[in-house]
C-alpha cells in the first residue's frame, strides 16, 4: 500500500510539467504507450545482521520489466512521464547456500528524448531521465557452515537517473513500435551498504499518437 501511495503522489507531482509542455505547443502532439521486456540487475552488496556483520554479495536472475508512459512530442524533442516496474529473483549469495528471495523496483521518471530524423519510417533516439526509485525485497540464505539462516528485508526510496537509446518504427500516423535499451541507476543504503543499484533493460512496446 505504501508503494502505491508513493507512486501516486510522485505521478501527481509530475503532472504540472506535462501540462506546461502543452502550453508551449508548436504543432506537436501528445502520446501514450507501454513496453514489456527483460531486465538485469547488477550484483548487490549487503551486510548481515548482528554485531559481527560481514558484507555479502547477492546475484539476481534477469527477469520481467514493464513501463507505462505519457508525454508530448515537439518534433525532434520529446518530454514524458514514465512509470516502471522490474522484478528480480535471488540466484546466489557469496559464501552462502540455499539462497532465496526477490527484489522489486518501482520507478517514476521524467524523461527527455531527442529523435534523429532519418527521413524514413525509422527514428533513432537517445534519452535521459531523472526521478525516484522505490525498492523492496528479501534475501535469505544459509551460512556456509550450515549453522544459521540469515534473512534480510529491505525497503527504500531514493533519487534515480537513467540513460537510454533505441529506435521507433512508424506503423502509421497514429502508432509507433518502440524498442530500446536503458540503464537505470539509484543510490541505496537500505541493505546496510552504500551502493548503487544498476539495472539494464531491453524493452519493446507501442506508442499511440493523439
TrEMBL record:
Domain Outer membrane protein beta-barrel positions: 8-210
InterPro entries (UniProt xref): Beta-barrel_OMP (IPR027385), OMP/PagP_B-barrel (IPR011250)
SUPFAM superfamilies: OMPA-like (SSF56925)
Pfam family, one: OMP_b-brl
Domain of life according to the entry: Bacteria
Signal peptide positions on this chain: 1-21
UniProt entry keywords in alphabetical sequence: Signal
Keyword Glycoprotein: no
The keyword Signal is annotated on this UniProt entry: yes
Name this polypeptide is given: Opacity protein-like surface antigen
Origin species: Aestuariispira insulae
